[in-house]
Amino acid sequence: MDEMNLFESVKKNLCSCSADLSLDENVEALLKNPQREISVSIPVRMDNGKIRVFQAFRVQYNDTLGPTKGGIRFHPSETIDTIRGLAALMTWKCSLHNLPLGGSKGGVVCNPRDLSTGERERLSRSYVQVMYPYLGPDRDIPAPDVYTDAQTMAWMMDEYSRIAGKTTFGSFTGKPVSLGGSEGREEATARGGWYVIREALQERGMETGQSTVAIQGFGNVGSHAALLGQEVFGARVVAVSDSTGGIYNPEGLSIRQVLAHKKKSGSVRNFPGASNLTNEELLALPVDILIPAALENAITSSNAKLVRAPIVAEFANGPLSHDADDILFDSGTTVLPDLLANGGGVIVSYFEMVQNFNMDHWDASIVNQRLENKMKDAYQAVSRLAERNNVPLRKAAYTIAVARVVNAMRMRGWA
Ligand code: NAD
Fold first, then answer.
1. Same-domain check for residues 160 and 194
2. Which residue, judged by its Cα, is nearest atom 8 of ligand 1?
3. Which of these, 15, 227, 341, 410, is most buried using a 10 Å CB contact count?
4. The dihedral of CA 158, 163, 168, 174: what is its sign?
5. Does the beta carbon of 216 sit less than 6 angstroms from any atom of ligand 1?
6. Catalytic status, residue 105
7. Where does a domain end: 109, 140, 170?
8. Strand (E) positions, 170-242?
9. What is the pLDDT along the chain (415 residues), one digit of tens a residue?
10. Which residue, of 273, 308, 341, is where some domain finishes?
């Protein structure tokens, strides 16, 4: 098995609990394959008047529990196989968090930094035009992911609504608050992750306020993880990084100032009072918590032994290769797995759908309280099962998630 292949890794995690759940081979075969994959070429007119064709995907992995749900990425090295892995992961994430949703994911092969705002808008709208028959509030509901944001979702929701002939807020989540978006959605993945970290620390007799943290990735998830970590959970954030490299100050970084510096210079590097370091060096820092919040396979068999943090919280999807996961488990590191730790994004996306369907708008305090309850419930269930069966948290999380889907499949007559 290629340890960097996310889909293979998710399937291996699924198989790891098939004996415990007595899955028969037909059920396993259904769960190891996507229900639907859409692969398209999208022509878009560029600012220079010429047409450029973009490859784009949507994988609707499994809709046993409800309409499928998952982000859309814009990334130059996107592949259908990674999207397949991410869509499978969404299936288990929605199930673990007890949401009435299946799993999906989408992607466009492009580098959004090379596109003007107009080109990104036309690309976003074209994606919806092509995918329209397969999308919708009761079919498949996208959200932001790597290099897409609330503006992207606003364009996509608007295009969907134009084709449908009616404003359909519930067709996309992660929208701006002025367009049916939920309070707290932008920071939800990071906030939810911190609730999980807090639970894990409390079990060890520690508090977030006593902890030191290093965070890889300074986009939506990473920057909110740093800001909330410092300002809400009282942690000392000593290192952060983006695709250009990282910065380190053992006394702690002022995250608001780092955000301003990044906004001005385009990078976190060369921040006054901190030393520059590589992404590899960041992974090896002596901190209490390491948060990979960038892309998949940040930690593989080649660098897993460098990790010194006793807790690794996967805010990104698939940041540990399967081999790295084994190495960290053997070394006694606690890994808070992606489907558990970063479920806050899809949970608040689900809250956004509920608000849209009910023409309602919840205060941030309601959103955060409900998010906290769901994250705590999931952590407690996973932690209890892991302890009872003496297995890693990831295996316990998959066991709960897969069992729920299989049970629903049986009730639907699919198994
Ligand atoms: P984003 O595009 O906002 O940010 C990505 C960040 O990663 C950027 O700071 C970028 O500079 C950095 N980066 C890219 N390549 C890197 C590298 N090689 N080394 C270090 N940093 C690198 O994306 P995001 O929404 O923050 O997503 C980050 C991760 O979290 C992804 O794995 C995504 O699937 C996952 N996730 C996101 C959400 C969400 O709500 N946005 C929800 C759940 C999971």
1. no
2. 219
3. 341
4. negative
5. yes
6. yes
7. 170
8. 212-216, 236-242
9. 788 899 999 999 999 998 899 998 899 999 999 999 999 999 999 999 999 999 999 999 999 999 999 999 999 999 999 999 999 999 999 999 999 999 999 999 999 999 999 999 999 999 999 999 999 999 999 999 999 999 999 999 999 999 999 999 999 999 999 999 999 999 999 999 999 999 999 999 999 999 999 999 999 999 999 999 999 999 999 999 999 999 999 999 999 999 999 999 999 999 999 999 999 999 999 999 999 999 999 999 999 999 999 999 999 999 999 999 999 999 999 999 999 999 999 999 999 999 999 999 999 999 999 999 999 999 999 999 999 999 999 999 999 999 999 999 999 998 8
10. 341
Distance CA 402, CA 78 (A): 27
199 and 121 together in one domain: no
Does ligand 1 come within 6 angstroms of the Cβ of 218? Answer: yes
Domain shared by 266 and 155, yes or no: no
User: Quick check: is 7 in a domain?
Assistant: no
Q: How many domains does the chain have?
A: 2
Atom 34 of ligand 1 has which residue's CA nearest to it?
317
Same domain, 69 and 207: no
**Residue of minimum CA distance from atom 41 in ligand 1:** 145
Range of the domain at 308: 188-341
Catalytic-labelled residue, pool 105, 175, 262, 395: 105
CB 244 within 8 A of CB 268: yes
Question: Scanning the structure block, which residue is given the tokens 């380190």?
Answer: 248
Mutate to test the pocket of ligand 1, among 90, 147, 152, 189 (most ligand atoms within 8 A of CB): 189
Residue at token pair 């540990």: 320
Indicate whether 216 and 330 sit together in one domain: yes
Reported as half-sphere exposure (CB side, CA atoms, 13 A), residue 130 has a value of: 21
CA of 148 to the centre of ligand 1 (A): 10
216 C-alpha to center of ligand 1: Å?
A: 9
- 217 in contact with ligand 1, CB cutoff 6 A: yes
Taken as a whole, the chain contains a residue count of 415
Q: Ligand 1 atom closest to Cα of 294?
A: 7
Cα distances from 92 to residues 61, 63, 71, 195, in angstroms, run 10, 11, 14, 19
Q: Is the CB of 147 under 6 A from ligand 1?
A: yes
